[in-house]
Structures are given as structure tokens and as C-alpha cells.
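Help! Submission page says 'invalid entity' but I think these are all valid:
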Amino acid sequence: MTATSSTTQNASAAAPDLGPRAFRTGRHGDTITVGIVGATGYAGGELIRLLLGHPNVRLAGLHGRNRENQPIAASHPSLGATSLVIDQAIPEADAIFTALPHGVAAGMAADLVARGSALLDIGPDFRLHDPADYPRWYKFDHPAPELLAQAVYGLPELHRDEMRAAVDKEATIIGLAGCYPTATILTLAPLARAGLIGDLAVDAKSGVSGAGREPKPDLLFSEVNENVKAYGLFNHRHTAEMEQELQQQGERGALASRDANPGVATVDFLPHLIPMTRGILASCHVRPTRPVSQAELDALYDEAYRDEPFVQVVADPPSTKHVFGSNLCRICVKVDPRSGRILALGVIDNLVKGAAGQAVQALNVLFGLPETTGLGQYPIAP
Amino acid sequence: MTATSSTTQNASAAAPDLGPRAFRTGRHGDTITVGIVGATGYAGGELIRLLLGHPNVRLAGLHGRNRENQPIAASHPSLGATSLVIDQAIPEADAIFTALPHGVAAGMAADLVARGSALLDIGPDFRLHDPADYPRWYKFDHPAPELLAQAVYGLPELHRDEMRAAVDKEATIIGLAGCYPTATILTLAPLARAGLIGDLAVDAKSGVSGAGREPKPDLLFSEVNENVKAYGLFNHRHTAEMEQELQQQGERGALASRDANPGVATVDFLPHLIPMTRGILASCHVRPTRPVSQAELDALYDEAYRDEPFVQVVADPPSTKHVFGSNLCRICVKVDPRSGRILALGVIDNLVKGAAGQAVQALNVLFGLPETTGLGQYPIAP
Amino acid sequence: MTATSSTTQNASAAAPDLGPRAFRTGRHGDTITVGIVGATGYAGGELIRLLLGHPNVRLAGLHGRNRENQPIAASHPSLGATSLVIDQAIPEADAIFTALPHGVAAGMAADLVARGSALLDIGPDFRLHDPADYPRWYKFDHPAPELLAQAVYGLPELHRDEMRAAVDKEATIIGLAGCYPTATILTLAPLARAGLIGDLAVDAKSGVSGAGREPKPDLLFSEVNENVKAYGLFNHRHTAEMEQELQQQGERGALASRDANPGVATVDFLPHLIPMTRGILASCHVRPTRPVSQAELDALYDEAYRDEPFVQVVADPPSTKHVFGSNLCRICVKVDPRSGRILALGVIDNLVKGAAGQAVQALNVLFGLPETTGLGQYPIAP
Amino acid sequence: MTATSSTTQNASAAAPDLGPRAFRTGRHGDTITVGIVGATGYAGGELIRLLLGHPNVRLAGLHGRNRENQPIAASHPSLGATSLVIDQAIPEADAIFTALPHGVAAGMAADLVARGSALLDIGPDFRLHDPADYPRWYKFDHPAPELLAQAVYGLPELHRDEMRAAVDKEATIIGLAGCYPTATILTLAPLARAGLIGDLAVDAKSGVSGAGREPKPDLLFSEVNENVKAYGLFNHRHTAEMEQELQQQGERGALASRDANPGVATVDFLPHLIPMTRGILASCHVRPTRPVSQAELDALYDEAYRDEPFVQVVADPPSTKHVFGSNLCRICVKVDPRSGRILALGVIDNLVKGAAGQAVQALNVLFGLPETTGLGQYPIAP
């Protein structure tokens, strides 16, 4: 992929020593080699943008269906300053990011981890722990349930220790959290752990880039502009992730507090498409299991996130523009003094914290780097 | 306001015979004289656009603060084809529409109705029945509680008969429904009447025109574009209307069915500003009071709206663009087979069905015209 | 297409008497039957919207490839209130509108005019008088040059008399003006006739709907939003129309004034895609052939357009939003006192005056109706 | 401005040694202290964003009218991660950036440079060399013509050597180029130097952020969205800069080539407001002074820009989105084989290369750092 073919040869030569364990033993010096499969989509492009600015990463290979030998700038004109070219083969590297249609990464995972590479899947193939959830929500049978059993759900704020431990597993696989789930789970996790979620409606608004780059009639500018609509009623696939993770947070909290309430059973999730490119706002309407004060909520969220570099708990309703282009998640939680209900609002940039940035954050965890490495960009406004 | 001063003189001469009762007795021929106070804002402009196409209306006067004697086209360049000019005095006419900051119409109402004019207030001054709601929600004491007692809530689909009866009252005053309440109440009324609303969160998305035309930093293009945010947490003034009307629908239904459940006590209402100019989508998340089937919902809504010219019940989630520029409200109601929850989605154009169009519809009711007169515009798409 | 099949039968029975000549002899009463071929695109949808409000038209048939027997509302959800259905056959009617990819209408024209129908082509197949221009600009050989010779260029403001005369031709064919040419030619025609255009650059900005409804990567919301670009450098097909018409206006003016300057030879035309759905602004930079005063320009444009119902000459730079949803063209012409250059700015709604509205205006001309019939809509703002 | 007041005291103590000369002698170590006057506007916010990521800069003070002692995050919520506070006094620092209404920076310049600080003015007060241009174009008399005489026009690609030399002047003042002029001058400079510009129309399109943050009716979302318009006909102030610089480039080229043609006399400049937040596209329509081939153009631009880190000459028409959030300028130049005209297209992000990024680039030049320091951000897309 790089301009000089020698680079790829070097990467190949290093194959036996690939992966986070090899890196941590110092055999690589300071450089992590990275490959991207599915480099021509929006998440792929965002990943390249971020990794080009990462001080410890060398892009060792890009892969994109039917674009072999094309400059990557043909797919991503904004990256015109690079001379990177799309490879024919799946690259060999310490870490492989996959940004592919569902089912595809699962099919190639065994080969990738056999080389020692860590696999960080931006798609959904390694997010759900129960193999039965794949036919149920995604309409395919998971081809590698034994690998699924080793995968870690890729939301570093909740699964940092498991990610670190994954380095010593046979297969190091991260099923990076989806965009809606990232916003929703971070926004609700403290409530879930405290057993506070009685009834829950998650009403989410997303920019259009989350729908990907394939041209479909509904994604045309003329259809999306000056328009808003709900979609995916009752069956959006991200619901499964939210329920899995909120349930687990609830159990974790119940265990810790010996509380009998393990949290929500179902998530009433309703996504909307709004006329913007980037950003997700998850508006979570919660009927609490018991009366709660604002002070209690403030304390819960402060405790949960005060040491998190990418989560900002704020006093006013956040705008997606407050996090545009950054890996930040901004959260505001309020109790309604009139009704006793809780409103929890969270925003992210769906392509950064909801995809490529989260992937880089997970890479940093796996390879023992400070989590903010290469992710220090401030949001762009206006 | 009209180019010839004689017109105004004629209107003045007709003063004693003003108003809907006079019109219905045939003293006017086919023409209703209409004045607009607050003609320079967005709702005022939309009203002029609609009334210029109304076959039975003559615009007898426009009023706008600090713009006296200016052509209306200076305020609304899109209306450049008219030669209408802003008057110095409040016009005399069969019907006066007021589109003013809250508290202003209430102060001038007594004078207007004394002339015989019907008063159709697009602002909030005559929407809430309980005078105590004004200091509570709007922070002012209502200056004319005796007129408030005669006012009819201006949502023709729910209060058509009261509107007609208002013609024979001492004062004919319509407090036209707000934009969010129009979308929300129409979307939920059948559920409220059936006593089905157990728990309710209304998550609404609005275009920016609803915030009016006064320049404020938060309404600048650079702030709104590529952005979404919630606002008005727990205290949006439209909440009061929604609770008043849904409560009333619930009581009406309870009375009819001898059911003990009069409906919701509080509405968890959360509005959002999204980057578009026109349109409101109200996404209503309902936990029903009892299990309900899709067939039952379909029957409820069919019965409620099959004869309504402006309400379309559809099978797929509606887009605001499906009603852009029209007086339509489009509604979709579904029960989630997994959770048993109900999702009710409603869209309107906030400046038409949510303001000026509804006002014209109410005018038609008061003056005994077919309700669709002057409101036959199809939505504009894309 | 209509809900009852009998309608179509009636239309068929009327076939021998189809067309504008038949209508003008009074054999139809007040109703013109109309068919649309290519009803599922944006121009088709706009045409239906306008014709549903036209008092003298009955939609006798809709045709759309691969959508036979579908409700038209499946293609145009905003038209959900109609029960129109897409026909299998090309409809028989007094007038057939074609809104089709280039080359298709030319292929079916002979059949259509043989029935007596007037053909109003929204596509480019009958706009260029010289058959050689089709292979040159459109890369196809015109299949019916003998029909092309009878076609009238469909810009009523410039070719009204020819349109009227076309009713008595063997074939009544209108090649409706393209969207960019409509804005540009109307903006420049008075200068062209006066022989004032020395050097000319037309820098045009268009909303995205002009690119049609076929999903292409470049038309995705995420690509168009927050973006502007030029395209079609030096070879946009509409250039041919502009040169043909401006040349003709120049010749007409030279003939009238015995002036030797017949106008521009080439148009430097540069279109841009901007992030909006509807609207075209043509900014025409003119180096005049001789010094000219503002008063002379004002007089030229006043004379040209004072009696035109759809052309408004204004003193300030017009916005596309001033004409949104209407059949208006708004023009502002200024001379730069510093440089002596002329700036001529014109705006239209590309789907109305630039397509469907212009088509209805031409229909009115052909059938002897007031030109504004069914086109009285005021622009929608904001 | 920093959280601890001691910081400001330290800065004060360092005052005698302030400025680029002091820095270059090594007295500062690696850190340049920087102050921003006018920190609460869009350009100010962008400057903070960039400087927070600059490895050699310490923000020593922020100033903003009527916001003293407020956290900067109250003005720029996207910068919520910083604890910077707005100072009461104008900060003392090696470099002061001013982003102020015209006339204000000129008034405070004498004081600032007296301390040794370099002054980098993002406003227009030091761009025009001829004092008479200020009353003419900006309607104020320049209060410090003696400082104006020492100021350097701040477009590093054209005035790098003068900037370096300015360090040794009594007053080091950079009048940073305006946003439209940056795009236009970079796009045309090679043609101007080659004496190729015969006739010139610059048709520019800008996002709304260039109009600043003061709430004005015309900048409301509802007015700008779904709209395009020209403004500033014949009198936009940036015209003066363009003429000054293109004239100078022409003279420079004429001098070098002994060519008699010193370039354009007047620029026909027409700016447009389009519905996006960031970005400028300058479409330059050029009638060349003599026939020119594409190969000659390619060679001219390659020679001019091949070593420039921020200017990319490309083969296809550039989009503003290709440079969003970056300090890049992307240019495409083509000759029309049919007409012989030249079309030169240039895009920038108006808040980066058109304001804050250019300011940082100039800072790097003044302080002897690599020009790309702190400016390595890739554009964000989509």
C-alpha cells in the first residue's frame, strides 16, 4: 500500500512476530504496524485520517474491494496529501481493522488471528456474545462461534480490563461498539449499574454518514435535506448490543450492591435520520425504579467518568457540534422535579467515538499506549 | 394596507357588521375581510401567503410594529408580487389574526372583539383554560381572564363544534394550538380517549422556523447547521397545552366508556432543534395501560381520522417532507410485538398546520366554509 | 392510471379528437386530458403536484418504467392524498409530457404526435434546432430530425407566438427549456437583443434536485452537505441551448436595430452544485460592447418584462428562496460604476420554472388558457 | 487567562524579552507565549483550537469584550476540555493575534508593538498598503499610517521573505490576508505573474461562518438554509486586497520577464452566501492576454506551488470539503479548448487557511519554526 514496495516486504518479514504481545515485548520498537480491510468506506477513511496522525502507528496496508492498486486518494480525496495505494492482499500487521458489511469480517477472522494480528472489527460481527443473536438480529449464522467466545466488546470505558487481558488469549479480537450503542450505553451505564432504570425509551438522532457510502435512494441529498424521519422501528440491530451491555452493567451493579434489581429487560430504541452528516444524540427517557435526586445523579456520573479522558459530564444539554471531529462523548443527566423522571442525553461523533476513534482507542489499550495517543484533536466548531 | 385608501374606508364603514355572525347572515356576500396583527414574522408571512390564495378572503389590513407604511414585500421578499403595505392602525375586519409575543394579544383582545371581529390568536394567550397556568408556564398574569373563559382551543379536529358555537358567544376567540401540541395531540388523541396512555415520553424534533425571526446567537446558521440538541428540558411551555388537551381527551373517553382511567397526568416532553427550516416530528413513546393489538390501534385511528381532510394515517413512519408546505398531519402508530409498547409518530409543517394553516382552517370553521377552502396545496417535494 | 378503469376507456374513445386544435374548437369542454411519461422522477412528481391544482386539466394517465400498477404515492409519498396509479401503457391524451433520459422521448415522439397529442418534452430531445448538436453535445444521433424541425423551443417569454403557431403544425412539439438555460436566457435576453454582450461568463449555482433521482455516490447527502464544487467544466450540455438562444436573440435585436453586432459567440458556462435541494442562481458577468448606464439597463429590462406575469425585475440581488416553489424568475441587473461591467443575476426554482411549471405554462399557451392558470402559487418562505 | 494568576505575572516579568527576536536568540527555550484579543468570535475560537495543539506555543492570555473572567468554554463549548479563562487585560506575549472589527486593532497596535510583541492581525487593519484605501473601502481613516508602512501582507506563500525580514523591523506587524483574497490570490498568482490575466471575473462562494458571530437577521438558519444569493455587489472590501496583490504579482512578473503587461487593473469580484458553515470556492473566469496551452498552465502552477506544503494543485475541480478543517488550499486550472478562456478554481477552509490557520502559519514563519508546525491536520470528510 505504501509507495515503496519494500515497506510491504518488511511487514511480511515481520509476520511471525506480529501482534500486541510481540509489541509489548519490545520487538517492534515504538511502531505498531496496522492494516485496514474496508478502507474505502467512511469509517475506513476516518481511520486513515486518525492513524496518519498517530505517532506510534505505521499504515502497513490498505484493502478495498475492487479498488486494488488505486491511490487511496481516489476514494478519499480529502486524503490527497498521502501517496498510499490500495493493496491486492489482506495486509499483514500487528493490528487489522475491519470495516465491512456484517458477516464478512467473521468469515476472515480465523486467518487474521492465526498470523498473530489483533483483530479490531468496526462492524458488528464480534459484538454480541450469544451466537443465537446473529440469526435473530442480523439474519446470518455466525461462522466462527469459537472466536466469538474470545471476543471483547469494544467500549474501552466499560471493558478496559478485558481488552488488556485479551492480549494473552489465543485470539485477540475486539468487537468495537456500534455508533448508537456507544452513545447510549455510555449515557446510561451509571444508571444501569445503580439499578435505576425502570422504564426506558432511547430516542436517537443520527447524521447520515452512519448509513454508509453505498448510494441508496433514501440517502440522496434531496431526500434527506429539510427532512427528519424515524426508521428501523422495533428491529434496529443495535438494540441487541444495548440490551446486552445495559443488562450486564445492571448485573454488575446488582452484584456489587446486593441489589435485587439487575436493570432493564428491553430497550425501546427508536433511531432517526436527520439532515446532517456526522453526530449522534441519544435522548434517553428513564422512569427510575425509585425516587432519585439530582445530587445523587451528579455523584453517580462524576464517579463513573471523572477519570475518563473522552467522557465529559456537563450541566447543559450537549450539542453534537460540541464533539464534531473528536473522540469525545458528552453527557448531561437531569431529573425532572415535576415528574421524577430522568433524562439522560449523550452526544458523540458517530465516525470518531462511534467508529474509527473508538477503534484507535482500543488499539491504544491493547498495545499498552496512553489511551489518548493520536486522539487529542479538539472538536471543530462552528 | 391595500394600495387604494378607499378600500380601508370601505372596511371601516362596514365595521358595525363585522364578524362571523354578520358574514353568515349574508351581509358580506362571499368575502370575509381579514386583518393580521404581527404580519412581519414567519407565521404572519405564511398567513399572507395562504390568504392571498383563499377565494373568500380579502386582506383588509396588515399591522407590524415599527414597519408602518412599508410594503409587506420588504419584510417578506417572497411576496414581492403583492402591493400590500403595512398599516398604521390595527385593521378592522371580520377576523383578526394575531401572531405576537406572548401577552400582547391578550392585552388588545377586548378592543378587537368589541368591534365584532373574531379573534384568532396564533400565539399562546388563549390556549390555556386555567388562568393560573399563565404565571406558571409563561410568567405573566393573564390580563383578561373573562375573555379566556370564552376562548376555544384551536385544534379543529378536536374542537370543531365548540368553534362553531363560539360564533354566538359574546366574544369569538380562538386560541390556536401551538406547533408541538398540534403534532403531539393529534398523534395521541385516539390513545388518550381510549385510556391507553400509561407512561408517556414525547420526543419532538423541530425545524428552526418555529423559534421565530428575532436574531439570536443560537439560531445562526453556523450554530444550527450540522448540529442537533435538546432544549427546554422539563419546562417547555407547550407542555401545558399537551397536558390540558390529553387530559381532556382522556376524560372525554372515560366518560364515554365509563372507564376509570382518565389518561396521563404528566407529559415528559423533550423538544429538539434540528438543522432544517420547517417541520415537526413528534415521536411519542407510550407504555400502554393494557396489552393492545395492532388491529385495535388501526381501528382506533381509522375511526378517529377517516373523515378528517387534513389527517392521514399511514402504515410507514412519516417524514416531515411528506407534508412540507401543506396543512396535513401524517400519523403512524405501531405496537412493538416484543415489548408491547406503542410508538406513535406524527408530522406536520410547523408554519402551516402548526400555525398559519391551522388558523385558516379555524377561520373556515367559524365562517361556515368548507374546511379545506384555500388549503388544498399539495406538499412540495423534494 | 385513475382509480376507475372507465376513465382510461373514455380517454381512448376520445382519441381521434385529441390535442390542442381539438380543444380549441371546444370539443372537450373545459377539460384538457394530460398524460405524463416518466412520472416517477422529480420533474414528474412536480408536474403531478401542479396539474392536480390546475382547474382545466384531468390527469388521464401516468407512465413510469418498472412501476406499472403501483400507486403514484409509492414514488411520491408527498402525493399520498391521490389514488392515482401508474399505467401500463403510454396514456392517450390531449397533451403528453415526457420527463425522460435524453434520447428516449425523441424515439417515441412520432407515435405520440400521430395520435394528435401535443408533446411537451421536459428533456432535451427537442431543444436544439441543429441535429448536429445532438451527437456533439449529447452523444446520440437524433432519431427524428423531421420532427425536430417542427419543434419550438419552450421558453414562453421568448417564443410565445411560435408556440401558438405550433398548434397548427403537423406535429405540435415543445422542447421545454432546460433549468440552467431558463435562468440564464431570461436574465440575459434583453442584453443580447441590445447587442450589449461583449464578453460573457455565466457562473451558475444549482440545488441538487436538478441532478435527478437516480442514486449516485456524488449525490449522497454526506457528500453534498457542507460542500460546494464546480462540475461539467467546458462541456455542460446546457451550454448549447444558451448559445442557440442568445445568438438568436442577438440576431433578432440586430435585425430590429440594423446593428452589426449579433451577440455572443460562445458562453463560458460554469455550473456548481451547492448544498440545497431546489433553486438556481445564474450570475452572469458581462463585459459590455459599449458603455452603458444603469438607467439604460433599467429601461431595457422594464420594457422586456413589465408585462410578463412570471418575470420580476428587482432592485436588489435576488435569493433563490424568493421564488421557491413558484413559477417565478426574479432578475436584477446592475452596471459597475467602477469598471463598467454588467452583472445580471437571475433566480428560479429549477423544478418549477426550470421544469414542470414551465411545462404547464407552455400547456396554457398551446391550449389558449391564461398563462398563469394553475401557476398562481406564491413562493414558500422561509 | 490561565487558571493560576501566577502565570500572568510570569508573563509580565518576561515583557522586556518578548517577541520573535527574543525567541530566536533562544531566551525562551522552545515556548512562544501567545495572546489572543478577540477570542470569543469564530476566528478566535479556531485559533485557540489550533494553538492548543501547537507544540511550541503557550496560550498566555485571552481577551474578549464583556466576557472578562468567564471560562472560554462559555464562548466556545467545543473547547470545554480547557480551563482557560478570559483575562481583563490585554495579554503580554511574544505574539498577539487580533481578531477584531475593522479599525480596532489599528488603534491598539502602537501599544502592542511597543512591548516587543509581534502583532498578527486577522482583521483588515494592516492589509492595505495605501492609507487612502481605508477611507475608500472601509470608511475609516487609518489611525497609524506609520505602522501600516511597516506591515507585511500576510500570505506566506507570496510574502515569506518579507515576513522573515519584519522580525528586524521596529514593529513586527502582519496584516493577515482576508478569506476571499487568500483563495483568490493563491488561485491567480501564477497567472498574474505570467501577465496572462486579460479580463477577470471572480465569482466566489462562501460558507456563513465568514460573516462572523454577531446575530443578524440575514444569517439566521431559516434565511440561509435552502438558499443562495449574491451580496456586496461592486463594493466588497476584499476587492481592494485582491487588486493590490494581483497588481503586485503582475509587476513582479513583468519586472522578471521585461514584459510590458503588469496584470489586471480591476477585479470583478462577486461573493455569494451559500448554505454551509465553512469553506470558500473562488471560481476565477479569465480571458487570457494571449493563447495559452494546458501544458503551459500546468507548468506554471507546478513551478509556483510544488514546494508549498499547503497548496495542492489538482487535476479535477476541487470541493471545499476536500480541505475542511485543514490549512490546505486546493487549486485546479484549466483552459477551455473551445473558447481559449482559462478557468482557475481554488478552495480553502475560510476559518483555517482563510483566518486562524494562516495566522499560525505566519507565526511559524516569524518565529523560525517549520511552517507546518501545529498545522498537520488532515481535512475531515465526509
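Support: the input was valid. A stray whitespace character was the problem, and the output above is from the cleaned input. The first strand of chain C starts at residue 32 and ends at 37.
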